[in-house]
Each structure stands twice: as C-alpha cells, then as structure tokens.
Specification:
Blueprint lengths: L5 E13 L1 H12 L3 E5 L5 E2 L16 E4 L3 E9 L12 E8 L6 E5 L12 E6 L10 E6 L19 E13 L2 H10 L4 E5 L6 E2 L15 E5 L2 E10 L12 E8 L6 E5 L12 E6 L12 E6 L15
Antiparallel strand pairs: 1-10, 2-3, 2-4, 5-6, 5-8, 6-7, 8-9, 11-12, 11-13, 14-15, 14-17, 15-16, 17-18
Length: 318
C-alpha cells in the first residue's frame, strides 16, 4: 500500500471590520502616537478602550490620554517568535499598566534577554515609523532607561480611523487518508475513483473510507466516467479577492454517472443563465503536462450536448 499523501495547506484572508466611535477614536489616537483609555462608571480607566462598561453594560464614550510609559505587572518570555508576532527575535509578552490606567495592556516588550525582564520594571512604547491606526502602531515596549528617544513625527491627517484590516494566515500540514490518497493519485492519471458501500451499494466520490449510512468500510473501488448531471448550482455575480474568473459564472454540484453523491465544481462553456438543473455535462481536463494529485486537473465542466436528465433521476440527491 502506498504511503498517504501529505502537503502544506495554507489558508489566508484579510479580516476587515468597522470600529465604531470608541475604538475608532482609540485607533486614531494610536496613529497620532497617543494612547487613550476610556473611563468607566466606577472611575476606572480601561486600556485598551472598551465600548461598554463591564459593570453596568452601558455604552462608554469618555476617552482620556494615558501613558505613554507604564509598569510591567507580569510577563512571559517568548524565545522562539512565531510568524506574524510583533518581533522576530526573542521577546517578552507582558501585561503593562500604563500611567493613568487601571487595567493592563498586553503587548511585547523588547528587553534584549530574559534576564533583562522583571515584574515592576518601567517601560515605554517604541512607535512604528509608518502608523496606520492599529495596535501595531506600537511596535513594542522597551525598558524606560535613560532619555526617551524622540518618536517619529506623526502623520498629519484629519481623517478618523473607521476601519481595521487584519491579515489572517494559517499554515497546516494536511495528510490525506489512504482512501483519499488513492483518489488523488487516480486524478494524476486522469481517473475518477470512488468507493462503493457493500451494504447499501451507494458510490461515494471523493471516497470517505466508510459509509456514513451503514458505518461499514467502503473497500470496493469504482472508476467513474467524467460525465454527469448538474443537480444544484448558483451563479456567482459578486467579485472577491483572488477570484480567477470574471463573474458571472456558475458553481454547481455535479453528480457523476454511477455516483451517489455530487461534488462542487465550475460549469463553463455556456452562458451562466443557460445552466440548469438536470443539464448533462462533461469534464474539461487541463493539458496532461499540468496534471497533479488534485481535482483541479479538471479545469471545469461544460455542456455535453446530450438531453437533460429527468428530475426523478437525481432528485433524491438534492
């Protein structure tokens, strides 16, 4: 038996949110190289600014300047920074209570070494050269020893910060099951391999290794043709980041002939408004030299020109 396939899997997107009045003013102050907190109903100043009082749950809106220096309340050393963290050399994560604040702020402290960190030490912010209105405008905190360096001049802008965009990146090493691996290796040979349940005789593609209905292994391998039926579909009209096809286009569930479960793919080769349930389609494969162990070997499905399938032939798959 061949070893299961394994490959890196990366997921990434830009998370964008609106900030509202309180967080918008907090972010705007950061762009101006100021740190603000918000005063609660009991007089305590919360940093970072929060929108609602933790005791009364009422909206808060009285922002006050704090810091910029503060005191380390507790800390933990990070000897091996991860991708996306504030610093790419060893640093400390610390809870810093800024002067004038009553709650601590979690941020990085660049102390040079773990021996340079201690609870109670005084720290000050190190500002980024190009502030944009986010907590990353503070590159990190550093020990407040000697004269504080003059921070870079803040950009002149009267525009308030109303939106915040945060890039999100996740990295995995995904290992396919033995059944999935045989299916993927089959794709590299131009074959579509499913598995049949020995009890209900349903054919699953991609194979799952077991039947979800009868809870038994699906060991009988079935090679399926690259023709099938459109069961359901949607017309994509909205553009988005990373889109490789100009809308409108169709994403459809295609039920291969002989299969009992459809899978999602593109339907091209005709106008989007001409795609319909029951349409017979055929796979349009990429050139063989571009094939790999992926369903993307099929560039898309396109109309085969055959008569539409009757509704009762696929209705139980909807």
């Amino acid at each position: 038996m061949s070893e299961p396939l394994s490959a890196p899997l990366e997921v990434g997107f830009d998370y964008t949110r609106s900030l509202g009045s309180v967080l918008g003013r907090f972010a705007t102050a950061l762009r101006q190289r100021r740190i603000t907190g918000v005063r609660g109903s009991d007089g305590r100043v919360h940093v970072p600014a929060i929108e609602y009082d933790p005791s009364t749950f009422q909206p808060l809106d009285e922002l006050v300047d704090v810091g910029p220096e503060g005191t380390v309340l507790s800390w933990s050393w990070a000897p091996d920074p991860l991708e996306g963290q504030p610093l790419q050399h060893a640093f400390a994560w610390a809870l810093v209570r800024l002067d004038g604040a009553d709650t601590p702020l979690l941020h990085a402290v660049d102390a040079g070494s773990a021996d340079g960190m201690r609870t109670g030490m005084r720290v000050r912010p190190r500002w980024t050269d190009e502030p944009c209105g986010s907590i990353r405008d503070i590159t990190c905190f550093e020990p407040a020893t000697g004269n504080a360096p003059q921070p870079p001049e803040a950009p002149e802008s009267d525009e308030p910060v109303t939106m915040l965009t945060t890039p999100i990146h996740l990295h995995y090493q995904h290992s396919a099951s033995p059944e999935e691996s045989r299916y993927l290796r089959g794709l590299a040979e131009g074959r579509l391999l499913g598995q049949r349940c020995p009890v209900c005789e349903k054919v699953y593609i991609p194979p799952r290794g077991s039947c979800p209905i009868d809870a038994v292994p699906t060991e009988d391998e079935v090679e399926l043709p690259d023709t099938g039926i459109v069961t359901t579909f949607c017309i994509v009209n909205v553009p988005f980041l990373g889109q490789r096809i100009d809308p409108p286009y169709v994403a459809a569930y295609v039920l291969l002939d002989g299969a009992d479960i459809p899978f999602l793919h593109l339907v091209l080769g005709c106008a989007a408004e001409d795609v319909r349930m029951g349409m017979r389609v055929r796979a349009a494969w990429k050139p063989r030299e571009e094939w790999d162990t992926t369903l993307q070997n099929i560039d898309h499905f396109e109309p085969s020109g055959q008569p539409d399938a009757p509704f009762e032939s696929y209705s139980h798959h909807l």
